[in-house]
Design goal:
The chain is an alpha/beta fold. It is built from 13 helices and ten strands.
């Protein structure tokens, strides 16, 4: 399998009946027009639905082509968002979803998982421990595995977001994208690389991570994938120990700059999204804006900027607390 434009186009056609085309909104921020891609309005509340539906739909098509029974059970490990997406896709496609989560997962995400009919398994204190437990379970049960970020279907699914966004906004000069395990930015980078190879103009791609979860930042600096110890406000969605192997070559090629943002900057960005657009974003979903709003990333004066708001599975009580606190950058 080759992760190229044809693979992403095929994925876009396959998942189209199951996911939303999410809108873009232009907002004036301190005198600069910024375009927001509101992927937080995706069917599962995050971009993760794209890869999740692709994984399950392609597995079903593959089984049918071989004359085999369609998979009935899917297993995933997740800090919450990937699990929600897999649970949603499984429910709509008539499958059972076993979702392994760390015990630190937010209650709001666990409640959504159960409401979608998933069987929730709390294992370990961080994502890596839940992942190991899910792999053992999948082997024992003979179930389909949906990886959160290091799987071909995941990357082609997330690559459809880049395809969609550039069709909506071909004028952008730079886009900011949050990074956890790297499936999202890897899929975006793969689409950008394919378009650049075809002679098309693509924006500069800026990777944004929290200071407590610098997986890609550390890997790019080292020139190889390295392991970190995730921590901080956005660890439930950005808290992988390392980036995926499939995405890393694309990130090395296409990511123009990697920046880190503080927890305070992320909280401020959550508040800014609410006050400017009434968008309730989780910390990971607001991380890309945090880089722009805090000055961690400074575009050139002439550059047209796009910011991806990638997740809305937020605990509203925690968001209310964030909104009541004074800004660290006021």
């Amino acid at each position: 399998m080759i992760l190229d434009a044809a693979a992403i186009e095929a994925t876009a056609a396959r998942i189209a009946p199951w996911v939303r085309v999410t809108p873009t909104v232009n907002v004036d921020l301190d005198g600069r027009a910024v375009e927001f891609k509101l992927e937080c309005l995706q069917v599962s509340g995050t971009f993760k639905a794209r890869g999740a539906f692709e994984r399950l739909l392609r597995a079903r098509e593959s089984a049918q082509a071989q004359g085999l029974p369609a998979p009935q059970r899917v297993v995933a490990a997740s800090g919450g968002n990937h699990g929600i997406a897999v649970a949603l896709a499984a429910a709509r496609l008539g499958m059972t979803a076993d979702i392994f989560v760390p015990r630190s997962s937010p209650a709001a995400k666990l409640d959504r998982l159960r409401a979608l009919g998933a069987v929730v398994h709390a294992q370990g204190n961080e994502y890596s421990e839940a992942l190991a437990a899910s792999q053992t379970f999948a082997e024992q049960q003979g179930a389909l595995v949906s990886h959160a970020y290091d799987q071909f279907d995941t990357l082609t699914g997330q690559g459809t977001l880049a395809r969609e966004w550039l069709r909506q906004s071909p004028h952008l000069d730079v886009v900011l994208v949050a990074v956890g395990g790297g499936g999202l930015i890897g899929g975006i980078a793969a689409w950008f690389a394919a378009q650049a190879d075809a002679g098309h103009r693509v924006p500069r791609l800026i990777a944004v991570e929290s200071e407590g979860c610098p997986t890609l930042n550390a890997a790019l600096a080292a020139g190889r994938i390295v392991e970190i110890q995730p921590s901080g406000l956005a660890a439930d969605s950005l808290g992988a120990r390392q980036v995926g192997e499939l995405m890393f070559p694309f990130a090395q090629r296409q990511v123009s700059q990697s920046v880190l943002v503080s927890d305070a900057a992320i909280s401020d960005a959550q508040a800014l999204l609410w006050r400017q657009m009434r968008v309730a974003a989780e910390p990971g979903g607001a991380a890309a804006l945090a880089a722009l709003a805090s000055g961690a990333f400074r575009p050139a004066p002439h550059e047209r900027v796009g910011v991806l708001v990638c997740g809305a599975n937020v605990d509203l009580r925690m968001l209310a607390d964030t909104l009541e606190r004074p800004s660290a950058h006021a």
